[in-house]
Protein backbone atom coordinates (compact mmCIF):
# COMPACT_ATOMS: atom_id res chain seq x y z
CA UNK A 1 0.00 0.00 0.00
CA UNK A 2 2.75 2.43 0.92
CA UNK A 3 5.43 3.19 -1.65
CA UNK A 4 8.91 1.87 -0.97
CA UNK A 5 12.05 3.98 -1.11
CA UNK A 6 13.96 4.17 -4.33
CA UNK A 7 17.32 2.41 -4.65
CA UNK A 8 19.28 5.60 -4.05
CA UNK A 9 17.12 6.59 -1.08
CA UNK A 10 17.49 3.11 0.41
CA UNK A 11 21.29 3.29 0.15
CA UNK A 12 21.25 6.75 1.75
CA UNK A 13 19.23 5.33 4.64
CA UNK A 14 21.67 2.44 4.99
CA UNK A 15 24.59 4.85 5.20
CA UNK A 16 22.73 6.88 7.85
CA UNK A 17 22.01 3.78 9.95
CA UNK A 18 25.61 2.60 9.59
CA UNK A 19 26.93 5.98 10.70
CA UNK A 20 24.39 7.21 13.25
CA UNK A 21 22.57 4.01 14.14
CA UNK A 22 18.91 3.01 13.89
CA UNK A 23 16.77 5.73 15.46
CA UNK A 24 13.32 4.11 15.10
CA UNK A 25 12.71 0.44 15.93
CA UNK A 26 10.99 -1.92 13.52
CA UNK A 27 7.47 -2.70 14.76
CA UNK A 28 6.12 -6.27 14.84
CA UNK A 29 2.84 -7.60 16.16
CA UNK A 30 2.50 -10.40 18.72
CA UNK A 31 2.78 -13.00 15.94
CA UNK A 32 5.93 -11.47 14.49
CA UNK A 33 4.21 -9.88 11.49
CA UNK A 34 5.92 -6.71 10.28
CA UNK A 35 3.75 -3.65 10.91
CA UNK A 36 6.19 -0.83 10.24
CA UNK A 37 9.84 -0.48 9.18
CA UNK A 38 10.33 -2.56 6.04
CA UNK A 39 12.62 0.10 4.55
CA UNK A 40 14.65 0.27 7.77
CA UNK A 41 14.89 -3.50 7.78
CA UNK A 42 16.20 -3.52 4.20
CA UNK A 43 18.65 -0.68 5.00
CA UNK A 44 19.99 -2.57 8.02
CA UNK A 45 20.71 -5.60 5.81
CA UNK A 46 22.54 -3.36 3.31
CA UNK A 47 24.52 -1.66 6.10
CA UNK A 48 25.26 -4.95 7.87
CA UNK A 49 23.71 -3.69 11.09
CA UNK A 50 21.59 -5.87 13.39
CA UNK A 51 18.07 -4.40 13.30
CA UNK A 52 16.27 -3.36 16.46
CA UNK A 53 12.66 -4.53 16.91
CA UNK A 54 9.69 -3.73 19.14
CA UNK A 55 6.40 -5.56 19.61
CA UNK A 56 3.00 -3.88 19.44
CA UNK A 57 0.56 -5.34 21.95
CA UNK A 58 -2.47 -3.18 21.26
CA UNK A 59 -5.64 -4.05 19.32
CA UNK A 60 -5.41 -1.49 16.47
CA UNK A 61 -2.60 -2.77 14.32
CA UNK A 62 -4.10 -1.19 11.19
CA UNK A 63 -4.18 2.19 12.89
CA UNK A 64 -0.53 1.82 13.77
CA UNK A 65 0.36 1.13 10.15
CA UNK A 66 -1.44 4.28 9.02
CA UNK A 67 -0.10 6.52 11.78
CA UNK A 68 3.52 5.42 11.22
CA UNK A 69 3.50 5.68 7.46
CA UNK A 70 0.93 8.23 6.37
CA UNK A 71 2.60 11.35 7.75
CA UNK A 72 6.21 10.25 8.15
CA UNK A 73 6.87 9.91 4.43
CA UNK A 74 7.21 12.75 2.02
CA UNK A 75 4.12 11.92 -0.01
CA UNK A 76 1.62 14.20 -1.68
CA UNK A 77 -1.96 14.83 -0.57
CA UNK A 78 -3.14 12.76 -3.51
CA UNK A 79 -1.04 9.81 -2.35
CA UNK A 80 -2.35 10.19 1.18
CA UNK A 81 -5.94 10.21 -0.07
CA UNK A 82 -5.35 7.11 -2.19
CA UNK A 83 -3.67 5.25 0.68
CA UNK A 84 -6.61 6.08 2.93
CA UNK A 85 -9.04 4.95 0.21
CA UNK A 86 -7.15 1.64 0.02
CA UNK A 87 -7.17 1.35 3.80
CA UNK A 88 -10.97 1.58 3.82
CA UNK A 89 -11.09 -1.98 2.50
CA UNK A 90 -10.14 -3.21 5.98
CA UNK A 91 -11.52 -0.32 8.01
CA UNK A 92 -15.00 0.14 9.46
CA UNK A 93 -14.82 3.93 9.46
CA UNK A 94 -16.88 5.78 6.81
CA UNK A 95 -15.23 8.02 4.24
CA UNK A 96 -16.22 11.24 6.01
CA UNK A 97 -14.72 10.07 9.30
CA UNK A 98 -11.44 9.12 7.59
CA UNK A 99 -11.25 12.61 6.08
CA UNK A 100 -11.83 14.22 9.47
CA UNK A 101 -9.41 11.99 11.38
CA UNK A 102 -6.53 12.43 8.93
CA UNK A 103 -7.24 16.03 7.86
CA UNK A 104 -7.78 15.08 4.23
CA UNK A 105 -10.24 16.88 1.97
CA UNK A 106 -13.44 14.86 1.62
CA UNK A 107 -13.57 15.71 -2.10
CA UNK A 108 -10.00 14.48 -2.61
CA UNK A 109 -10.73 11.32 -0.66
CA UNK A 110 -13.93 10.73 -2.65
CA UNK A 111 -12.01 11.15 -5.93
CA UNK A 112 -9.44 8.64 -4.74
CA UNK A 113 -12.21 6.15 -3.90
CA UNK A 114 -13.70 6.63 -7.37
CA UNK A 115 -10.35 5.94 -9.04
CA UNK A 116 -9.81 2.88 -6.84
CA UNK A 117 -13.26 1.51 -7.76
CA UNK A 118 -13.15 2.04 -11.53
CA UNK A 119 -9.42 1.89 -12.31
CA UNK A 120 -7.37 -0.06 -9.74
CA UNK A 121 -4.28 0.04 -11.98
CA UNK A 122 -4.38 3.85 -11.92
CA UNK A 123 -4.92 3.82 -8.15
CA UNK A 124 -1.71 1.84 -7.74
CA UNK A 125 0.20 4.41 -9.79
CA UNK A 126 -1.24 7.21 -7.64
CA UNK A 127 -0.25 5.49 -4.40
CA UNK A 128 3.39 5.09 -5.46
CA UNK A 129 3.56 8.63 -6.83
CA UNK A 130 3.98 7.96 -10.57
CA UNK A 131 0.59 9.51 -11.41
CA UNK A 132 -1.22 12.41 -9.78
CA UNK A 133 -4.64 11.91 -8.30
CA UNK A 134 -6.17 14.67 -10.44
CA UNK A 135 -4.87 13.10 -13.66
CA UNK A 136 -6.15 9.68 -12.65
CA UNK A 137 -9.56 11.07 -11.68
CA UNK A 138 -9.93 12.96 -14.97
CA UNK A 139 -9.08 9.78 -16.87
CA UNK A 140 -11.70 7.85 -14.93
CA UNK A 141 -14.32 10.53 -15.59
CA UNK A 142 -13.58 10.49 -19.31
CA UNK A 143 -13.77 6.70 -19.39
CA UNK A 144 -17.09 6.73 -17.51
CA UNK A 145 -18.55 9.35 -19.86
CA UNK A 146 -17.37 7.37 -22.88
CA UNK A 147 -18.89 4.17 -21.49
CA UNK A 148 -22.18 5.95 -20.74
CA UNK A 149 -22.33 7.31 -24.30
CA UNK A 150 -21.72 3.85 -25.75
CA UNK A 151 -24.41 2.38 -23.51
CA UNK A 152 -26.84 5.09 -24.61
CA UNK A 153 -26.19 4.23 -28.26
CA UNK A 154 -26.85 0.56 -27.57
CA UNK A 155 -30.10 1.45 -25.77
CA UNK A 156 -31.18 3.65 -28.67
CA UNK A 157 -30.57 0.82 -31.12
CA UNK A 158 -32.53 -1.67 -29.00
CA UNK A 159 -35.46 0.76 -28.82
CA UNK A 160 -35.66 1.92 -32.44
CA UNK A 161 -33.89 -0.83 -34.43
CA UNK A 162 -33.75 -4.21 -32.64
CA UNK A 163 -32.50 -5.88 -35.81
CA UNK A 164 -29.45 -3.63 -35.93
CA UNK A 165 -28.84 -4.08 -32.21
CA UNK A 166 -28.84 -7.85 -32.66
CA UNK A 167 -26.32 -7.60 -35.50
CA UNK A 168 -24.05 -5.47 -33.29
CA UNK A 169 -24.31 -8.00 -30.45
CA UNK A 170 -23.43 -10.86 -32.80
CA UNK A 171 -20.48 -8.94 -34.20
CA UNK A 172 -21.93 -8.71 -37.71
CA UNK A 173 -22.10 -4.90 -37.62
CA UNK A 174 -20.09 -2.25 -35.83
CA UNK A 175 -21.79 0.16 -33.48
CA UNK A 176 -20.85 3.13 -35.68
CA UNK A 177 -22.30 1.52 -38.82
CA UNK A 178 -25.48 0.53 -37.00
CA UNK A 179 -25.92 4.04 -35.62
CA UNK A 180 -25.41 5.53 -39.10
CA UNK A 181 -27.98 3.13 -40.58
CA UNK A 182 -30.50 4.04 -37.91
CA UNK A 183 -29.95 7.73 -38.56
CA UNK A 184 -30.55 7.21 -42.27
CA UNK A 185 -33.77 5.31 -41.54
CA UNK A 186 -35.09 8.03 -39.30
CA UNK A 187 -34.18 10.73 -41.83
CA UNK A 188 -36.08 8.88 -44.57
CA UNK A 189 -39.06 8.50 -42.26
CA UNK A 190 -39.11 12.26 -41.67
CA UNK A 191 -39.01 12.86 -45.42
CA UNK A 192 -41.80 10.32 -45.94
CA UNK A 193 -44.08 12.04 -43.42
CA UNK A 194 -43.42 15.45 -44.97
CA UNK A 195 -44.17 14.15 -48.48
CA UNK A 196 -47.37 12.46 -47.30
CA UNK A 197 -48.53 15.74 -45.77
CA UNK A 198 -47.92 17.56 -49.06
CA UNK A 199 -49.77 14.84 -51.01
CA UNK A 200 -52.79 15.20 -48.72
CA UNK A 201 -52.91 18.96 -49.35
CA UNK A 202 -52.58 18.49 -53.11
CA UNK A 203 -55.43 16.00 -53.05
CA UNK A 204 -57.60 18.41 -51.04
CA UNK A 205 -56.81 21.19 -53.53
CA UNK A 206 -57.92 18.98 -56.42
CA UNK A 207 -54.49 18.47 -57.98
CA UNK A 208 -54.82 15.58 -60.50
CA UNK A 209 -51.08 14.75 -60.52
CA UNK A 210 -49.83 11.44 -59.16
CA UNK A 211 -48.91 11.47 -55.46
CA UNK A 212 -45.22 11.89 -54.75
CA UNK A 213 -45.24 8.86 -52.49
CA UNK A 214 -46.42 6.73 -55.40
CA UNK A 215 -43.62 8.06 -57.60
CA UNK A 216 -41.07 7.10 -54.96
CA UNK A 217 -42.53 3.63 -54.55
CA UNK A 218 -42.40 3.14 -58.31
CA UNK A 219 -38.72 4.06 -58.27
CA UNK A 220 -39.07 7.14 -60.48
CA UNK A 221 -37.71 9.56 -57.85
CA UNK A 222 -35.96 9.33 -54.48
CA UNK A 223 -37.29 10.51 -51.14
CA UNK A 224 -34.96 13.50 -51.26
CA UNK A 225 -36.33 14.53 -54.66
CA UNK A 226 -39.90 13.99 -53.49
CA UNK A 227 -39.24 16.11 -50.41
CA UNK A 228 -37.80 18.89 -52.59
CA UNK A 229 -40.92 18.87 -54.81
CA UNK A 230 -43.15 18.86 -51.73
CA UNK A 231 -41.36 21.90 -50.32
CA UNK A 232 -41.78 23.72 -53.64
CA UNK A 233 -45.50 22.93 -53.66
CA UNK A 234 -45.96 24.11 -50.08
CA UNK A 235 -44.08 27.35 -50.77
CA UNK A 236 -46.22 28.05 -53.87
CA UNK A 237 -49.38 27.26 -51.91
CA UNK A 238 -48.41 29.64 -49.09
CA UNK A 239 -47.73 32.41 -51.61
CA UNK A 240 -51.13 31.90 -53.24
CA UNK A 241 -52.92 32.05 -49.90
CA UNK A 242 -51.01 35.19 -48.95
CA UNK A 243 -51.92 36.89 -52.24
CA UNK A 244 -55.57 35.98 -51.76
CA UNK A 245 -55.60 37.49 -48.28
CA UNK A 246 -53.94 40.71 -49.44
CA UNK A 247 -56.16 41.21 -52.53
CA UNK A 248 -59.14 43.73 -52.56
CA UNK A 249 -62.63 42.30 -51.95
CA UNK A 250 -63.51 42.33 -55.67
CA UNK A 251 -60.39 40.45 -56.59
CA UNK A 252 -60.92 38.00 -53.79
CA UNK A 253 -64.07 36.68 -55.49
CA UNK A 254 -62.06 36.04 -58.62
CA UNK A 255 -59.45 34.14 -56.55
CA UNK A 256 -62.19 32.05 -54.97
CA UNK A 257 -62.32 34.01 -51.72
CA UNK A 258 -65.69 33.88 -49.96
CA UNK A 259 -66.62 37.30 -48.50
CA UNK A 260 -67.58 37.44 -44.86
CA UNK A 261 -71.39 37.97 -44.48
CA UNK A 262 -72.46 41.27 -42.92
CA UNK A 263 -74.25 41.16 -39.61
CA UNK A 264 -77.72 42.62 -39.12
CA UNK A 265 -77.90 45.91 -37.16
CA UNK A 266 -78.42 45.54 -33.45
CA UNK A 267 -81.36 46.92 -31.47
CA UNK A 268 -80.27 50.04 -29.58
CA UNK A 269 -82.12 49.01 -26.43
CA UNK A 270 -81.18 45.35 -26.56
CA UNK A 271 -77.47 44.99 -27.27
CA UNK A 272 -76.53 41.64 -28.61
CA UNK A 273 -79.89 40.87 -30.24
CA UNK A 274 -80.73 41.72 -33.87
CA UNK A 275 -83.34 44.40 -34.47
CA UNK A 276 -86.54 43.19 -36.13
CA UNK A 277 -87.84 45.76 -38.70
CA UNK A 278 -91.55 46.70 -38.60
CA UNK A 279 -93.57 46.57 -41.83
CA UNK A 280 -97.08 47.84 -42.62
CA UNK A 281 -99.56 45.66 -44.46
CA UNK A 282 -100.85 47.18 -47.76
CA UNK A 283 -104.41 46.05 -46.94
CA UNK A 284 -106.48 47.82 -44.22
CA UNK A 285 -107.47 45.85 -41.20
CA UNK A 286 -111.18 44.74 -41.30
CA UNK A 287 -113.52 46.10 -38.68
CA UNK A 288 -114.76 43.54 -36.12
CA UNK A 289 -118.29 42.16 -36.63
CA UNK A 290 -120.42 42.38 -33.46
CA UNK A 291 -123.74 41.43 -35.07
CA UNK A 292 -123.97 38.17 -33.23
CA UNK A 293 -123.54 39.86 -29.89
CA UNK A 294 -126.72 42.11 -30.10
CA UNK A 295 -128.13 42.63 -26.59
CA UNK A 296 -131.79 41.75 -25.95
CA UNK A 297 -133.68 44.44 -24.12
CA UNK A 298 -136.56 43.48 -21.77
CA UNK A 299 -140.12 43.51 -23.19
CA UNK A 300 -143.63 43.37 -21.76
CA UNK A 301 -143.91 39.63 -22.25
CA UNK A 302 -140.43 39.03 -20.84
CA UNK A 303 -139.67 41.78 -18.38
CA UNK A 304 -136.24 40.34 -17.52
CA UNK A 305 -135.30 39.57 -21.14
CA UNK A 306 -133.43 36.49 -22.36
CA UNK A 307 -130.94 34.71 -20.21
CA UNK A 308 -128.02 35.38 -22.59
CA UNK A 309 -127.15 38.99 -23.00
CA UNK A 310 -129.34 40.04 -20.07
CA UNK A 311 -128.84 43.59 -18.89
CA UNK A 312 -129.01 44.13 -15.18
CA UNK A 313 -130.50 47.40 -13.86
Estimate what percentage of residues fall within beta strands: under 5%
Instruction: Indicate the mean pLDDT.
Output: 78
| Stretches with pLDDT under 50, minimum 5 residues | 293-297, 307-313
Largest sheet: 3 strands, mixed
Percent range of helical residues: 55-70%
Strand order of the largest sheet: 2-1-3
Overall SS class: mainly alpha
- Please give the alpha-carbon distance between the first and last residues: 140 Å
Compressed to H and E, one letter per element, the order equals: HEEHEHHHHHHHHHHH
Rg, Å, rounded: 52 Å
Oligomer: single chain
Global morphology: elongated
| Number of helical regions | 13
Count of structural domains = 3
Number of strands: 3
If you had to describe this structure to a student in words, what would you say it looks like?
Helices cover 56% and strands 3% of the residues. By secondary structure, it is mainly alpha-helical. The protein folds into three domains: 1-74, Conserved hypothetical protein from pyrococcus furiosus pfu- 392566-001, ParB domain (Alpha-Beta Complex), CATH 3.90.1530.30; 75-160, no CATH class; 175-246, no CATH class. It has a three-stranded mixed sheet. A hairpin with a 5-residue loop joins strand 1 (26-28) and strand 2 (34-36). Helix 4 (77-87) packs across helix 6. It starts with 6 loop residues before the first helix and ends in a 59-residue tail after the last helix. The model is unreliable at 293-297 and 307-313 (pLDDT under 50).
List descriptors.
3 domains, three-stranded mixed sheet, 3 strands, 56% helix, elongated, disordered C terminus
Amino acid sequence: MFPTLSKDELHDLAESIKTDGQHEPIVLDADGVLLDGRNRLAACKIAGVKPRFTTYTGDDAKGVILSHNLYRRRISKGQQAMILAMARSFSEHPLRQHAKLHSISLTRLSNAATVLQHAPHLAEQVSIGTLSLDAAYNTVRENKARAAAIQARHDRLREHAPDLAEQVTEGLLTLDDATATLGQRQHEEQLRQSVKHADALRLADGDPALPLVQLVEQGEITWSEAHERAEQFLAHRRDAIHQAQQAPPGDRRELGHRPTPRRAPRHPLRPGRPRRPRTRSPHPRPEPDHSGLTQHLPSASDPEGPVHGRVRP
